[in-house]
Specification:
Length: 163
């Protein structure tokens, strides 16, 4: 990705509904170039889609938490089943399969701490394959607006030895 691709990506992440003409003007290129570059970013899989971002508080889901789950038996099938089950729950914002002591990390958003307590105790802790469920309430969640390639200077040099 060159500087123009990165500028297009940043602008579209800030506002995916802007017109191609607005995008081209903001980036300083011709509209035909902006359209061609945007199509190429989609074709290469850099841009995977456009979506609406909802305000969770306006959806009465102002309490967020991260729930760590350990699963037994430790198998691909058990973890994938739990992952898919958690992802299908309306409380879930994101589900991560992780390494370490836990197998899943689930980001949820719910109306209240009472709802969160009932959700954890009644819907998660009772599941036999969930041998450990830990909940951390999120005080503040800030989602970065932009994602892009890291500058080359911030990437570790693979030839570096740490002995």
């Amino acid at each position: 990705m060159d500087a123009v691709d990165q500028a297009i990506l940043r602008r579209l992440q800030r506002d995916g509904r802007q017109t191609n003409r607005e995008l081209a003007e903001a980036v300083g290129i011709a509209p035909s170039t902006a359209l061609e570059r945007t199509r190429a970013l989609r074709a290469r899989g850099v841009i995977t889609g456009f979506h609406a971002v909802a305000d969770l508080e306006r959806l009465d889901r102002s309490v967020q938490a991260l729930i760590s789950i350990r699963i037994r038996p430790q198998s691909r099938e058990a973890i994938e089943s739990a992952r898919d089950s958690m992802a299908s729950m309306p409380e879930s914002v994101g589900v991560y399969v992780v390494t370490g002591n836990e197998d899943l990390l689930v980001h949820v958003a719910v109306p209240s701490t009472a709802y969160l307590r009932d959700f954890v105790l009644d819907r998660l802790a009772r599941r036999k394959e969930f041998v450990d469920v830990r909940t951390t309430v999120v005080f503040e969640y800030v989602q970065p607006v932009e994602q892009s390639e890291l500058p080359r200077s911030e990437r570790p040099d693979r030839r570096t030895s740490y002995s």
